Amino acid sequence: MNPSTSSVQSPQPQPQLELCNITKRYPSVIANDNVSMRVMPGEIHAVLGENGAGKSTLMKIIYGMTKPDAGKLIWDGAEVEFNSPAVARKLGIGMVFQHFSLFETLTVAQNIALVMNQSPAQLASRIRDVSVQYGLPVNPDRLVHSMSVGERQRVEIVRCLLQSPRLLIMDEPTSVLTPEAVLQLFDALRKLAGQGCSILYISHKLDEIQTLCDSATVLRGGRVAGHANPKLESARSLAELMIGRELPTCHRTPREVGERRLALRDLSLTSADPFGTHLQHIDLDVCSGEIVGIAGISGNGQQELLKALSGEIRLPDASSVSISDVAVGQFSPAQRRAAGLCFVPEERLGRGAVPELSLSENALLTAYVPACGSGMLRKGLIQRNVMSEFACQVIARFQVRCGSELSVAASLSGGNLQKYIVGRETMLNPRVMMVAQPTWGVDIGAAILIRQSLIDLRDQGVAVLVISEELDELFMMCDRIAVLAGGRLSRAVPVNQTDVNQIGVWMSGDFAAGRQIDDEVASDEVEHVQS
Description:
Helix content is 33%, strand content 22%. The chain is of the alpha/beta class.
């Protein structure tokens, strides 16, 4: 008698989290429509989709910030209700928000203490240790309001890592991190996944998705449009799965520059923040018909430079900033706008738009600009009684997904609000356009629309200054690129005479490296400025 044999199949692993037919309706839109998804232990699972596809709403439901209208959530095999973030955190769920959930008047340690069972003093050393361990330097004693968006992003990430999560939700975590910081973060996430932590990862940077993620769920219009293994897809195929059509492209052609529109001369500024960066002897020209980009690691003076240029800080020397040969260093923001400056700040909510106001009212905030001392409106700016019409034009031209021009700014997804703010400033007929982090947290289709709108402004003769931490973006859009490091600004180099590696070296503050490139372009720059 032959012994009988039998094979015993090992049990299938149980999902860490399962979403079953999740639906969430708002008065003007269905944000999630019967969404189902499974996340396994130790899996890095991407959630992809255009701005407004329902990704952030779904993550807020998982984190207990939003209650679904229908469907169920299963955690460790049991149905649960996440009634609050506190409940979610108790189960081991952490979330890194796209729009930061930090109190600006508190220090880093005080903000983190709000979700931890330790005092700020007890947390300080742990914050330093974890931030160094994961390559995300954070000073626990620094006040949040003094930090750039990139530095605040680090705080959000460190706060989650300190909680040793079992499921980590990351909504655009690398949108304002440097390439080196991104690589260090990815190493940290792989370690966490290796320890069994599940990760839900939202990003519009598809190369990151391909590098990091094991699987992907694609949302379109609030519904699941498909599933994919990112490592078996191209960036283009993922993008087209997200938008449901062929991917558009940017078009930029060489052109001659015109007169100088923006000039910085020996611009120096002592930061009011004890942890800030002092600006040191900055010189720069931006001419009509060109885009000049400023690269740099967050916290190297970008915030101070933006405030000095926008008028939020009045400068001791009026001639240190000039617009169309008019010294404006002591002008207010309104006076600089009247002189032709339009500005898209890096912070959408709070500086770019008032969250509680409608899109029409937010249009009025920058479109109504009295001329210097005259009480008259600058030509081309809208008046109060037509602000709704203007808002509607912005919404239509920049494909902003919202209920109407009466929708409050806080109700829009981050990418759609960014499109609205860029559109608002673009349609005010600027002479000089200054944009910080133009495509932060924006999907690939919207990013191309925003970049092309800035290129179109340049082609119309506007002088455009772009401050961004995305080098690929700068090389795609710009005619010249400079680097801000330690409060000092390098020479602006034509993009066809440098590369990502050279700019990366300069970002470390070593402007002397690559001197050959400097010498080659020196005469070109003299001719450029004189023209």
